[in-house]
Write a structure and sequence with these properties.
Largest sheet: 6 strands, parallel
Shape: globular
Structural class: alpha/beta
Strand order of the largest sheet: 3-2-1-4-5-6
CATH architecture: 3-Layer(aba) Sandwich
Radius of gyration: 17 Å
Number of strands: 6
CATH superfamily: Flavin prenyltransferase-like
Order of helices and strands: EHEHHEEHHEHEH
């Protein structure tokens, strides 16, 4: 797995720490991470993670591409990758991807992954959802994306926000289906009082 390229997009939805944790995990796995951050995400990163969050990210990833750099390598299908994750993924970004609107590098890179039939994971972040959100997520799914809302795995009994962020990040990476052992903790089943599993 190591040495493979993964594109990571961070859009302006709340949950910027999830994108940072994904970058950390991918870099630790020796993946070549190509990062693109929306203008709104720059503000969210500073507010939710810290003023130095973007500098920290740039120190982790192989390369950061500007949101307006439409001529970047990740804008072409000839630039082979193992997949792309957008985390967090705002409803604006989900809608643009679903509609094929490629007016910035993040949505263009996502569109490339869909047209090349590569795995695209969208860690959607919004609540509650109106009908337009639901239709956009359905359309993105029909185009081939995997919509994975940032939902905590409470059954794993997280003890901190960091635990929740870590599990969501690990699950998003696992959804790229790149092979190798799973990064996220798996549910192993519940036992009854008699020691046997539920039927």
């Amino acid at each position: 797995m190591s040495g493979e390229r993964v594109v990571l997009g961070i859009s302006g939805a709340s949950g910027a720490a999830i994108g940072v944790r994904i970058a950390e995990l991918l870099a630790a796995g020796a993946f070549e991470v190509h990062l693109v951050v929306s203008k709104a995400a720059e503000q969210t990163l500073a507010h939710e993670v810290g003023a130095d969050a973007l500098d920290r990210l740039e120190g982790i990833v192989a390369r950061r591409h500007g949101i307006d750099a439409i001529g970047a390598a990740i804008a072409s299908g000839s630039f082979a990758t193992a997949g792309m994750i957008v985390a967090p993924c705002s409803m604006r970004t989900v809608s643009a991807i679903a509609a094929g609107i490629t007016d910035n590098l993040l949505t263009r890179a996502a569109d490339v992954h869909l047209k090349e039939r590569r795995r695209l994971v969208l860690v959607a972040r919004e609540s509650p959802l109106h009908l337009g959100h639901l239709r956009a997520m359905a359309a993105a799914t029909e185009c081939g994306a995997v919509v994975a809302p940032a939902v905590p795995a409470f059954y794993l009994k997280p003890s901190s926000v960091a635990d929740i962020v870590d599990q969501i990040a690990r699950r998003a990476i696992d959804l790229l289906a790149m092979g190798g052992p799973a990064l996220s903790r798996a549910w192993t089943g519940t036992k009854c009082a008699n020691g046997r599993g539920f039927a």
